[in-house]
Amino acid sequence: MIVTFYDPMNMRFGGGGERWLFEVSKRLSQRGHEVNIINLKYTPMVNWRDFECGGYFNYFELPYVKLPRGFPFPSLSSVSRMVREFNNSDIVYFYADAPNELFLKIFASRIRSSLIGGFHTFMQRKITLQKLYTFIMKHSLKVFDAFHVPNTYLLRLLQDWGYKEVFFLPNGVDTLTFKLCNNPANSPTFNILFSGRLSEEKGVGVLIKIIRQINENSNFHDMRFIIVGTGPLKSLIRSTVKKYSNVEHKVRLSHSNMPRVYKNSSMLLLPSYSEGMPLSILEAQSCGLPVVGSNIPGVKDVVIYGETGALSRVGSVDEFVEGIKRYHKLWRASPNEYYSLCKKIRKYVVENYEWTIIINEFEKMLRQVVSSSQKLN
What we know:
Elements: E1 2-7, H1 16-30, E2 34-40, E3 58-62, E4 64-65, E5 73-74, H2 76-87, E6 91-95, H3 100-107, E7 114-118, H4 128-140, E8 146-149, H5 152-160, E9 166-168, E10 190-195, H6 204-215, E11 223-228, H7 234-243, E12 247-250, H8 258-263, E13 267-270, H9 279-286, E14 291-294, E15 309-312, H10 317-333, H11 335-353, H12 355-376
Helix pairs in contact: 6-10, 10-11
């Protein structure tokens, strides 16, 4: 089967969606499929990273047009090339994050291959402009034969809009790369990890308030914060590092170094305002780390409250601090019991989110959509 993926962001951007795309494409290629990835040449330079396709897939970068807000679009000169690549494929997986689907609708009549709309993020519906756009989006999504969503919120939303061919497939994790963390009994500090883009939607402002509140309580002198990532709010993190000696910021850290970071951490903190299904959670839990995260779609799909982590109201600094304190108390009172919890968390991820399990279902979805489209034609 020839599978083509289209993502308007560049693989060098290195976000969660791009990391997911690399992992899925690599595994489909290893199963004998021919895989193409089409990106635009656009990427925010602040996150620019080296990228090698490793011989797993064919990779194309096309010129783009960028409006003041939102995703870039392929330039007019790129459209013919894109349509040609699409039509040489059995199926096209198109990142449908708004307003990409509106662009696709313009030239969809020229595409003969099956189309899957993939969601890896979604509009924050509290914003008035995006609420208005929802009406347009409901109808523009009709260009797709099926949809792939990583969380149950998006599954219900698309079903409520009348779409029936919606596949709920969570993200996966390489459990052989992300191994069980070190025994907490061997660590003198309780290491709280934040890994992600330093931006408003990732809850960086909340993170800083949590750090401030923890440091104002002298009972938590053995807590340490490790922040991994870069982004528009980097300067706020730099100021926080200067103010508190127990905060460390790792700006340029390749993904290949992350297993070591998780392995030496005690828990993951994720105060995001919106997510699709963050890979950082699966990677952390594969290493056995409990997660204290926002009670939002994508996070609550994989964090089992009271078993693999704690869920807090979005933006509630007090609830996040309480979640941290709960795990810190267990770690301090009984490191071995804490390690037993880590083992249980890893077991849960290995049994449910290992890439082999996920890619089996993803491949099955592709075959089903192609088969259904051929019957209709």
